[in-house]
Amino acid sequence: MQNCMDLTKKVEDTLEELKALAKELRDTEEIKSYIRNDAEYISHLFMSGAVSEEEAKKGLKQLKVYVIRQLEPHYNTIPQLFKDMEKHINELLQDIQKEISQTEFPESLKDELKDVIDKVEEDIEMLAEEMRRF
After folding, report:
1. For residue 54, what is the domain's CATH number?
2. What mean pLDDT is predicted for residues 36-45?
3. Residue 51 phi, psi dihedral angles, 5° rounding
4. 11 and 45 part of one domain
5. 32, 64 in Cβ contact below 8 A?
6. How many folded domains does the chain comprise?
7. What percent of the chain has pLDDT over 90?
């Protein structure tokens, strides 16, 4: 039962992380920050001598092309990605539900577990009796 509770907590935590990620990926301030950081990184590379002026300008041009041509489609793809993820998760849950619903509780398990508990109880009684002797 503890395993089920732990798993439920992990799933809830993962869903919260996904919720935060979805918000972050579509947060305009975060997007501005990403692009600004990328541009500043290119500037830093130039100032440190790691890249030439030409390479820095090429990097900034590629960043600008991304913003102009790809950012909006990527932004608009995020809801579809989450719909696809939802579909996949639902399919997995249906498969799990189908699998577990086809399994009946084995009545012999009760007797086996009762025997295990009885054996441990006997062991405890025997150990307790020996401990009282000393």
Report:
1. 1.10.3200
2. 97
3. -135, 155
4. yes
5. no
6. 2
7. 70
